[in-house]
Amino acid sequence: MASTAKLLLADLASSGVKQIPSNYIRPITDRPNLSDVQISDRSIPLIDLQGLNGPNHSLIIKQVAQACQNDGFFQVKNHGIPEEMINNILNIARKFFKLPESERLKNYSDDPTKTTRLSTSFNVKTEQVSSWRDFLRLHCYPLEDYIHEWPSNPPSFRKDVGEYCISVRGLVLRLLEAISESLGLEKDNIDKKLGKHGQHMAMNYYPPCPQPELTYGLPGHTDPNLITILLQDDVPGLQVLRNGKWIAVNPIPNTFIVNIGDQMQVLSNDRYKSVLHRAVVNCDKERISIPTFYCPSLDAIIGPPKELIDDDYPAVYRDFTYEEYYEKFWNRGLVKECCLDLFKASNNSA
């Protein structure tokens, strides 16, 4: 009985279970079907950011436009974040999830409104089926408002993760300018729509799973925020839906994966798409992924910009606050239907 009473998946998984508990088993119609997944080296575009503010500017803007329009996902290299910082942050995440259970549980909460919390699956209070992951979620902008809540173990956690957050935010702000420009807008257009801005991150831990074909690390979902910057270790797991097929996105060292979130789809008036993606697990290796979620502040009013609305392209969405959107997302759980449909502008032709 003791093993079933574990709050965290890591402690259940490390107890040597040979079969996954029934609450992790997906219905037959909603399983990963791993043999049907396409694997290719260049499954999503890889954009070299070298020279973004110099000779390659217009080429990179064009590549960003195409990736946001056609894929909703792209990878970036020469992004300005040092390899040493990347390796360090992955190591800190590994060390955190290897801490004794009692030490990790100091950070545990099942309340999605808490700004720093360790939890498991997605939303244990509302979901029907559990997902094969533990996660540490941190709010990180403005840093000084939150850093005191963060774990103090491993000892360098606050200092090193804080520096990483600042670096990733710098990358996000450069990408937001490029995305604004790629839409034909002033480069500060998106930045100005975000109120005071918000930034969260997660450290996801996916333990080895004895029956990976029966469950997900995370089921198919779109991201509710503006833009996500994902760092993953060298273990595959991320898959992206393209033309009705799941495509494996295999890790490339020292790159970040960038994906368009639901708010960017709104701020582009549907020109750019927030795409379904999921995490699968495997029976041999643990996997770490570290997404940074950049978002509007909760009071920011989001809607299509007037510059992208005309007779040919009417507003697809009504205006709403990010808080309204974010609450719906957490309460509905990870469902394949994007929350965006609930925020469509009413039209008379319906």
UniProtKB/TrEMBL annotation:
It catalyses: salicylate + NADH + O2 + H(+) = 2,3-dihydroxybenzoate + NAD(+) + H2O. It holds the Pfam family 2OG-FeII_Oxy. InterPro entries: DIOX_N, IPNS-like_FE2OG_OXY, IPNS-like_sf, Oxoglu/Fe-dep_dioxygenase_dom, Plant_2OG-oxidoreductases. Residues 196-296 form the Fe2OG dioxygenase domain. Keywords: Dioxygenase, Iron, Metal-binding, Oxidoreductase, Vitamin C. GO terms for molecular function: dioxygenase activity; L-ascorbic acid binding; metal ion binding. This is Fe2OG dioxygenase domain-containing protein. It comes from Dovyalis caffra.
